[in-house]
Amino acid sequence: SVQPPEKPLQAEEWNRLKKSFESPAVFEEVMFNSMVRYNSPVDVAKSLLTHVAKSNGDIAYNLLVKYLALCVQQGQTSEIRDVYNIMKMRFKILESGAYNLLIRGLSNSDQWRMALTLLEEVKKIMIPSRTNYESCIKAATRHQEMKLAFELYHEMLAKDLVPTLDVLQTFFDSCRGMKDAELQKELFGMLLYLRENQIYPHKTFMRSIKLWFESIPGGNWRGHLTNIKDSGQCPVCNHQLEDSDLTEEEYDNLRERIIRDVIHGTDMFRKTTPEEFEAFQTFVENRLPFDIVIDGLNVSHIKPRKMQCENLFDAVSCLAKENGRLLVLGRKHMLSNSSNWKREIMKQMQSKADFFFAENISEDDAFLLYATLQSGKHCRFVTRDFLRDHKACLSDSPTRHLFRKWQRGHQIVFLPSVEGKQINFLPALRYDCVVQTTGDTWHIPYKDIFEEKYSYQVPRKWLCIQKK
Amino acid sequence: MQSANTFLRKIASSVLPFAAQHGMRKDLFPLSRALSLSLCLKQDNSCSPSEKLDLDAWKKVMKAGLQEEVSETVSDSEEFSSLAQAREILAMWRLAGRSVPENITDEQLKAFTECPSKSAKRKYLKFLYLKELRKKKDKIKLDEKRQRRLESQKEAPTADETRRDSFMYVQASAMDRAYNWRVAQAMVFGQPLVFDMSYEEEMSPRELTNAVTQLVYGEGCNRRAADPFHIHLCNLREGSLYHRELLKHYREAWGKLLVTATERCYTEVFPKHQLIYLTADSPRVMKTFDHNKIYIVGSMVDKSIKTGVSLARAKRLGLETAALPLEKYLLWNSGAKNLTLDQMMQILLTLKDTGDWKKALEFVPKRKYSSFISKPVHELQKTLNLINTLKLGKRQEEVRKQHAKNYSKKLIQK
Question: What ipTM goes with this model?
Answer without folding.
Answer: 0.79
